[in-house]
Amino acid sequence: MVGGAIGLAGVAVAAALYTQLGSLVTALPGAALLICVALPVFVGGGLLLQRAGVTGRSPGGYPLTLLAPSLAYYAAFFLVPLAFLVAFSVATPLGYGGVSYGFDLGNFSQAFDPIYLRVFTRTLRFAAIGTLLVILVGFPMAYWLARYAPAKRKNLFLGLMIVPFWTSFLIRTYSFLIVLDPHFVLSRGLEDVGLIDKPLHLLYTNTAVQIGIVYNYLPLFVLPVYASLDRLDWKLLDAANDLGSSAFAAMRQVTLPLAIPGLATGTLLVFIPMMGEYVIPQILGGGRVDLMGNIIQRAFLEQQNYPLGAAIAMVLMAALSLFLILYIWLSTRATEVGDA
Amino acid sequence: MVSLRGVTKRFEDVAAVDRLDLDIRDGEFLALLGPSGCGKTTTLRMIAGFEQPTEGEIFIGGSPVVGVPAHKREVNTVFQQYALFPHLDILDNVAYGLKQRGVGRKERRGLAAEALKLVHLVGRDHARPAQLSGGMQQRVALARALVLKPKVLLLDEPLGALDQKLRKAMQIELKRLQADVGITFIFVTHDQEEALAMADRIAVMDAGRIEQLAPPRELYDEPATPFVAGFIGDMSTVGGTLAGDAVELSGGLRVPLGRRLVEAANGAAVRVGLRPECATFRPAEGGPGNAEVATAMVLGDRLQVLARMGDGDEVLLRQPRAHGDAAVAALRPGDGLSVEFHPEVGLLLECAGAATAAPVVAPTPQEVAS
User: Fold this and answer.
1) Within 13 Å of residue B234, how many CA atoms lie on the same side as its CB?
2) Fold for domain A111-339?
3) Residues B88, B125: Cα–Cα separation, whole Å
4) Residue B271, φ and ψ in degrees, nearest 5
5) In chain B, whose CA is at the least distance from the CA of A261?
6) Residue A89 to residues A38, A117, A306, Cα–Cα distance (Å)
7) What is the largest CA-CA distance in chain A?
8) Which residue in B has a C-alpha nearest to residue A234's C-alpha?
9) Which of B51, B64, B98, B143 is buried most deeply by CB count within 10 Å?
10) pLDDT by residue (tens digit) across A198-224?
């Protein structure tokens, strides 16, 4: 009952909100469409909650009503905008921000233009290399933290890793402008040591963007991996060793399989935002490095071609869904291991 | 089969194991017994290869193994909490070691199934460890180690995680299993009852050293040091005066002496250790008797009293109880007790002024009684 009521209240709030929003940007049709999309979601969610209310508990043992606030929020501010995006992606652009709603697949054929595909592969490369680098740097870090860091200092080290997050993302990225400047310590230092003989011109290059991406996303990877390694019983490695595994074999056969939930979460947590990253390329790439995020941003804000931007975003999301499916598959497999 | 020569292990400045010499025979069931922190687990881990000794030499089957990593030693371990791989099913857990040796998939599964049969665990091949009870996990851990046919099987508190009833059953089963496979078993425990029940010989350890290495009966009847006397079995101590081959208590009671762990002159103040079965007792008739009941309890087939004697020292006494016997069971605190010692039951532990090897760590009668 409570669940159903919350669901209906959510519908009312969302309807009110979006009819208002709709009048600003897209007028009535958008709002109507939104309500059409949102209504089944809310009613469905409400029914689900109500059904759960009969038993009172989800299979996991938590009352499902606890989910209601996040579910309502998620529906109102994620699913509904998503519906907007879908509506935009099949609308016809009229120029200068105007659109005519309909079912026009022209935006998609434009989105598959070789220019955009090139940007897409570039973005994929950036994200893939970035993720790889994050894993290479982050895994040993998480491993050390979980296994070798002095128990009393663990929280300190974790804190040190999170501290940069208290600073604005923009400020951190802008500060890298200084770090990468040819006249700054990094370049000077390397020159003094004799590793390089002329100033390092990293700024506004792919490398700069790559460095910035890895730096910004590293903690997002280290934390979940640390969490899963921290739960690992290190006696298992003794056991593997005792049964004839070398340290390397034990890592491959015991540590890694047991760290999969954390690795999958961490990888996804860095890979997906990397695919949509547009601030770092803008700042550290000086506008010379274009990624998918920049294209979408420009389509919306500069060209005011909402349908094209929406279509490209949809394609990107579809591509990323593949990774999500992989993640869900991996993590449910891992949960089975954990539960069993 | 396994020999330790002057093995010392220091962690920072603390010697966890201190110049240990130990020879373990082929096919023997040996227990390393001691209180926590006595170095027994460290000793086991050095034999397994998880720790390297700071000094000394270890031989397994005649060859020196110091410096040989754990995965190249012909010993296998059953871990305290079993350390089963949670992501592998039971069969794969047992087959893990064979896989490391490059045994083919089909063959190793066959061998693993056989090993599971040996430990009486069939039909759960594809369960995950967490789906099994503690006793079953214990069997898997045993099978996983035994399937490799090691020269020596090391067991680290193998029964510690099981409940009392299961533990008793597993003690018998482990003993039987060891006789069947004929492998040398070395197991670590802090539970003396477990050690007494299973081991052929027990090495009682304290502070990184072996206090005594002997078969269970010998440890109980002829303890070499006050520590062993106090650690193995129940022992109460009473103070008195040495008088020839007996110790006279202040109430006039005489404890006939057997073994002496210290030298003492006639007339010296001494302390003497007494096992619960050292005497018979009955309610005193027509007088105060020679001791007084502090507590009395019926333990089913036995009767236990804490008798106050001498200078107020309390001695734990137990005797068999005839079925339906209510007279002795009616003893109340403060009742008079007539105690009669068997010959040569007193263990001379310490003498005022004489140096003893180690402080006596006997359970106090209060602890035993509670």
Assistant:
1) 19
2) MetI-like fold (1.10.3720)
3) 10
4) -120, 140
5) B87
6) 18, 17, 8
7) 74
8) B83
9) B143
10) 777 888 888 889 989 998 899 899 999
Burial class (CB in 10 A: 0-12, 13-18, 19+), A145: buried
Instruction: Return the number of other C-beta atoms located less than 10 Å from residue B361's C-beta.
Output: 13
Spell out which residues of chain A touch residue B130, defining contact as CB-CB under 8 Å.
Answer: 339-340
Nearest to B83 among A239, A258, A340 (CB): A239
Is B69 in CB contact (< 8 Å) with chain A?
yes
Strand partners, B11: B14
Q: Using the beta-carbon criterion (under 8 Å), do A242 and B77 form an inter-chain contact? A: yes
Cross-chain Cβ contact B85/A239 below 8 Å:
yes
Residues 147-166 of B with CB under 8 A from A: 148
Which candidate, B79, B116, B118, B77, places its Cα nearest to that of B95? B116
Helices (H) and strands (E) in chain A, counts: 16, 2
Domain ranges, ordered by start, for chain A: 2-89, 111-339
Pairing type for strands B184-189 and B152-156 reads parallel
Cβ pair A337:B86 closer than 8 A? yes
Chain B residues with CB inside 8 Å of A264's CB?
none
Asked if the interface predicted TM-score (ipTM) of this complex is over 0.90, the answer is: no
Chain-chain contact of A243 with B87 (C-beta, under 8 angstroms) = no
Q: What is the pLDDT along chain B (370 residues), one digit of tens a residue?
A: 899 999 999 998 888 999 999 999 999 999 999 998 899 999 999 999 999 999 999 999 889 999 899 999 999 999 988 999 999 999 999 999 999 999 999 999 999 999 999 888 988 999 999 999 988 999 999 999 999 999 999 999 988 878 888 888 889 989 999 998 899 999 999 988 899 989 999 999 999 999 999 999 999 988 999 899 988 888 999 988 898 889 988 878 889 998 888 888 888 889 999 999 999 988 888 777 888 899 988 888 888 999 998 788 899 999 998 877 777 667 888 888 889 999 988 898 888 765 444 444 444 444 444 4
Using the 8-state DSSP alphabet, how is residue B326 labeled?
-
Indicate if the alpha-carbon torsion angle A41, A46, A47, A51 is positive or negative.
positive
* Amino acid identity for residue B210 in this structure: I
Would you list the DSSP string of B135-178? HHHHHHHHHHHHTT--SEEEEESTTTTS-HHHHHHHHHHHHHHH
- Closest C-alpha to B185, from B2, B368, B327: B2
Q: Is the dihedral of CA A94, A95, A98, A102 positive or negative?
A: positive
Report the CATH fold assignment for B2-226: Rossmann fold (3.40.50)
Contacts by A123-127, CB closer than 8 A, 24 or more apart? A123/A275, A123/A291, A123/A292, A123/A293, A124/A275, A126/A206, A126/A209, A126/A210, A126/A213, A126/A274, A126/A277, A126/A291, A127/A213, A127/A271, A127/A274, A127/A275, A127/A277
Interface-testing mutation among B42, B65, B87, with chain A (most A C-beta atoms within 10 A): B87
Residue contact B128–A340, C-beta within 8 A: yes
Q: What tens digit of pLDDT does each residue of A7-60 get? A: 666 666 555 555 554 444 444 455 555 556 656 666 666 666 566 555 545 555
Q: Are the CB atoms for B242 and B206 separated by under 8 Å?
A: no
Q: How many CB atoms lie within 10 A of CB A125?
A: 13
CB B93 within 8 A of CB B138: no
Residues of B in contact with A253 (CB under 8 A): 96
Question: Across the interface, which of B76, B79, B100 has its CB nearest the CB of A235?
Answer: B79
